[in-house]
TrEMBL record:
Signal sequence bounds: 1-19
Keyword terms: Signal
Protein name: Thioredoxin domain-containing protein
Family matches, as InterPro entries: AhpC/TSA, Thioredoxin-like_sf, Thioredoxin_domain, Thioredoxin_ResA/DsbE_sf
Domain (Thioredoxin) ranges: 27-178
Amino acid sequence: MKKIIFILLLSILSLTSFAIPLNNMDKAGNVTLPNIELVDQYGKKHNLQDYKGKVVMINFWVSWCSDCQGEMPKVAELYKEYGENKKDLIILGVASPISKEYPNNKDRIGKKELLKYIADNNYIFPSLIDETGKTFAEYEIEEYPSSFIINENGHLRAYIKGAVSKEELKQNIDKVLTSIQK
């Protein structure tokens, strides 16, 4: 059975142009993503490893992306609906402001403007600020938005490339949450 699941997972990953290197896959077919240690717009430090035991959705976005602008309010709604990171689901955004030191970062605005953009648009869920672009590079983000849903053991369970509906995000989240409640 595990072999069938492994082959199925590999097939799905190859069809979706999976961006995360498959050398992060264990023998059971579980993909572990790179750790993230970044500070959010509120000054709070987040370490992905601290969320073991929880389901985590990570949404990579940029301010200039129209698909991101359409999806971000949905992510903010989900953040509220699922308990504002106080229950079994942690929702995190990741943004990468441009700077003199890092002119190749993905956003087109600097950190100060990005923080204002987040506040002005009422994106209240934690948006981690990837000032060096390291996290975007490690996750090989090429399309915006890109979302990853990780189970309670830190294994990738869904990779969503591009914008999707709120309902599709909920379906993916609920599928992973249901597995921890069994």
